[in-house]
Amino acid sequence: MRFASLSRADPTKLHDSAIQFLPSHFSLKSLRESAQGCRGCELFRHATQTVFGSGPAQARLMIIGEVPGDQEDRQGKPFVGPAGKLLVQCLEAAGAARSEVYLTNAVKHFKWEQRGKRRLHTKPSMREIRACRPWLEAEIEVVRPRTIVCLGATAAQTVFDRNFRLTQHLGKLMSSPLAHFVIATYHPSSALRAPDLAERHRIKNRLIHDLKIAVKSAK
User: Fold this and answer.
1) Can you point out the beta strands (E) in the chain?
2) Closest by alpha carbon to 146, among 103, 175, 186?
3) Looking at residue 16, what is its pLDDT?
4) Of 52, 174, 179, 181, which has fewest CB within 10 angstroms of its CB?
């Protein structure tokens, strides 16, 4: 899988896809550097920076979330906010360290709306997801993970299609051209948004359960 060269893109204009901004040679370094100038959709206009994936270049386990949050946008790193901290706790409980896993998002720019003094993330559109997909495909091509974990419906629909239903496939190992195994589970942010403590514990425990399956399958 190879895409158009970065040299074909005009960085001053908005394009229909990130494909025109990909470098001619794929490595995590070249992809990360090229992604900083992406104008594949309008989200770059209101984001602080591109939040590219991070982790080992040959990680056997890749975790895909939805979109960067407020702290990720400010720091330029994925999963460093409250949901990221909960994910790290769940990973450790499942027998894996953050340093062993490649973490990324389906969309690389923070999409948000102002609520008082807070910037709250909003769900990316299918157009924004499609526009950003070349970055995700390129990351997968370089890392070549054995197992991919999709956190939440948006990530799973990015890997499969828009008809994917998380409730029907929760915690099930599935096959995909992108990896030996793909498993979809809850996004840790859903636990943080849970209406009560019991529901938060239920979602967290299920996330740990599914991550254990993923960790085992990646070995």
Assistant:
1) 61-65, 101-105, 112-115, 118-121, 147-151, 173-176, 179-185
2) 175
3) 72
4) 174
Residue 178: name the closest of 142, 129, 131, 219 by CA: 142
Q: State the Cα–Cα distance between residues 110 and 138, nearest whole angstrom.
A: 20
Tokens of 163: 């008809």
Q: Which regions in the chain score pLDDT beneath 70?
A: 1-15
What is the side-by-side order of every strand in the sheet holding 179-185? Answer: 101-105, 61-65, 147-151, 179-185, 173-176
Contact 63, 103 (CB under 8 A): yes
Six token digits for residue 153: 């419906």
| Element housing 207 (H / E) | helix 197-218
Look at residue 116 in the predicted model and tell me its pLDDT.
84
- What is the chain's alpha carbon radius of gyration, rounded to the nearest angstrom? 17
Instruction: Give burial (CB, 10 Å; 0-12/13-18/19+) of 15.
Output: middle
Pick the closest to residue 211 from 135, 98, 123, 107 (CA basis): 98
Residue 161: the pLDDT is 87
Judge contact between 148 and 162, C-beta under 8 A.
no
In 49-136, DSSP assigns E strands to: 61-65, 101-105, 112-115, 118-121
- Quote the mean pLDDT of the chain: 91
